[in-house]
Amino acid sequence: MRLVPASLLWRTFGVVIAVLVLSQAMAWWIFDEYVTQPRVALATRQFVSHLRTVSLALQSTSGAEQQAFIARLAEQEGLRVSPAAPTVPMRPATDRPRVRFFAERLREAFGPDAEVLARADDLSERPPLTVRLRAGETTYWIGFARGRLERDPLTAVAMWSVASLAIALLATFLLMWRLNRPLGELARAAQKLGQGEEPQPVAEAGPAEIRHLARAFNQMKDDLRKSDRERATFLAGISHDLRTPLARLRLDVEMLEGRVDPEVQRGMVQDLVDMNAIIDQFIDFARTEAAEPLAPVNLSELAGACAERAARTGAQVRCELGNVPPLLLRPLAVRRLVENLVGNALRHAGGEVVLRTANGGGAVTLSVLDRGPGIPVDMVERLLQPFTRLDAARSGSSGAGLGLAIANRIAALHGSRLQLEPRPGGGLEARVAFATEAA
């Protein structure tokens, strides 16, 4: 299970969340330690001092004057003063830190008989509080709302913290999303470029660093396209120029019949055929398959046509073609892929070549199998590179080392890859899987 997200967006988002939560927690602790608790202590002492004033006023008044004072306290300050009634059941209310702190300050001011009580029959979570005080010869109950002691400014701080956290996270998400969008576009364009396609220029928008990166990518794409055009022109020009002298040489060799040894003549003709094959590979390698539009292709029908064409030259090609759905492919490019793989197998392995198609696992698979000497596993990647030939493994004496490279390039253009694996019983299997999602 991956705990760390892979994308830059969610990694940054996670870091911002952690930083904001830690900073808010630290802010709460500092606010509670240096603001809330000192203010609560001061307010509690002031309230105890006010109760002391009320106690002195009750001692110094009586009768109607005292009743008017009690009524004024109830109306203006919410303090309910009445003589203690033993018939009303009461219980201690020192169940919370601030209530205990208030009770301690109360006993310091009025002596050990002062108590903070709550009605025993009030089972609510925050019942009103009652202070039992002795004023002269009379014991009074002074009732007040619990909120007078437990007003908590941290509630407002918490609301502000949650709101600021939500705003900061939303702003961070939008910022990273706008930053990631051009990066994602750049990644998709780079993937298309790596597959041999021609992506649209990347928009040069966003922060300066992103604009510079997009500009550099567009410049690189243009340089690669220019280099590919120059390479294609160079290869096509050389190949075209060589065709005429090779044709003259072929004619001259054919006219030598009867004047040279037949074996020598056949060898010369075969050399000219091989040279023509190399020129054909150069021309194929110089082509740009990405320009060909996609079209529905039945891979089994296309493979069967390629097998018939190879069989007309005397090659032994056996087909094992499955029932496959049509795919959106580049028909000429895929035909070139199949012909290169079949030609490579016939040239380097000899004997019978099997051409197989199958549908399953979300892909249509094309396989070309032979019974040749095979390819060592550690040489597979090397042989997929252009102009690579390995005499010790299937390279033979002809070819420019472009057949497998061209096939791999066409496979990559269709989102796949050419796989070269040992065939059970000996030989090689060249396999390309085309995803059916592209159909």
Structure description:
With 439 residues, the protein is α+β, with helices and mostly antiparallel strands. The protein folds into 3 domains: 145 residues, Sensor histidine kinase RisS, periplasmic domain (Beta-Lactamase); 99 residues, Helix Hairpins; 146 residues, 2-Layer Sandwich (Heat Shock Protein 90). The protein is built from 11 helices and 12 strands. The strands form 3 sheets. Strands 1-5-4-3-2 form a 5-stranded antiparallel beta sheet. Strands 7-9-10-12-11 form a 5-stranded mixed beta sheet, with helices on one face. Helix 1 runs parallel beside helix 3. The chain starts with 7 loop residues before the first helix and ends with a strand. About 1% of the residues have low confidence.
SSE order and pairing:
Elements (H helix, E strand, L loop, with lengths): L7 H53 L2 H15 L2 E4 L6 E3 L4 H14 L4 E5 L9 E7 L2 E7 L2 H4 L3 H41 L13 H47 L7 H25 L8 E3 L1 H13 L5 E5 L5 E3 L1 H18 L4 E8 L2 E8 L9 H4 L19 H11 L5 E4 L5 E8 L4
Parallel strand pairs: 7-9
Antiparallel strand pairs: 1-5, 2-3, 3-4, 4-5, 6-8, 9-10, 10-12, 11-12
Helix pairs in contact: 1-3, 1-5, 5-6, 6-7, 8-9, 9-11
* Average pLDDT metric: 80
The profile of the biggest β sheet is:
5 strands, antiparallel
Order of helices and strands: HHEEHEEEHHHHEHEEHEEHHEE
Q: What do we call the CATH homologous superfamily of the largest domain?
A: Histidine kinase-like ATPase, C-terminal domain
Radius of gyration: 45 Å
Per CATH, the class of the largest domain reads: Alpha Beta
Q: Which topology of the largest domain does CATH recognise?
A: Heat Shock Protein 90
The N- to C-terminal Cα distance equals 33 Å
**If classified by CATH, what would the architecture of the largest domain be?**
2-Layer Sandwich
Q: Report helical residue fraction.
A: 55-70%
Number of E-state strands: 12
Number of domains: 3
Structural class: alpha+beta
In spatial order, strands of the major sheet run 1-5-4-3-2
Shape field: rod-shaped
What are the low-pLDDT stretches, counting only 5+ consecutive residues below 50?
Answer: 392-397
Number of DSSP helical runs: 11
Q: Which percent band covers the strand fraction?
A: 5-15%
